[in-house]
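sorry for the late reply, my laptop died twice this morning and i had to redo everyting from scratch. anyway the thing you sent over, i finally got around to it. pasting the sequence first so we're on the same page, its 161 residues, then the predicted structure underneath. double check i copied it right bc i was rushing
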Amino acid sequence: MIHVKYEAEIIGKNMFIKYDGILKQRIHRKLANSAEAHNPNWDVDANGMCVLENCDSFLPDVGIWFQMPTKAERINPIKERCPLPDVWIEVFYNRDPDRIHSLDNIALVQQLNLGIEFVGISLPYSTVIFQQNPNPGIATTPVKSKHKAYQSTIYYPLERE
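ok and here's the structure:
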C-alpha cells in the first residue's frame, strides 16, 4: 500500500522513499521520450516499479524493456513480480546520499542480473545558474591570438664548428 502513496524502494529491510525535483523529473521524461522515439517497440517507463524474487522492489529513474512485461506485471508490479528492465537509467546528483544510493542499487542489481545495462547520469549539485554556451551548436570556437606571430622575435640556435 505504501507504494501507492509514495515512490518507495524496498531493499532488504530498508525502505527508501524517492523524491525527485523538477529538474530530474524533466530529464527522466526527456530520456524516456527519446528511448521511445528510438525504438517504438520498447516498453519505456520513467519511475516504473520492478520486483525481484526476494521481494526487493526497485524504481529505476528510466527503465527500458526490450520485451514488454505482461499486462498483469505492468498493473500489479509487486504482486506479479515485474522483471528488471534490460536498460536501467539512473540520474543522480554528484553528492551523497543520492550518488551512493544509486551506485549501490546498480552494484546490487548487477549481481542479480548480469545481462542488465546501466546508464548513470551525474548532475552537478549546485543552485548556481551555469553560464550559457556563447556559441551553441558550433563545434569549434574562433580564437584571437594575444601575440602577433609576425612581430615576435625569433631566435635561432647558432651552430659552431
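The first helix runs from residue 2 to 5.
thats about all i looked at so far, will dig more tmrw
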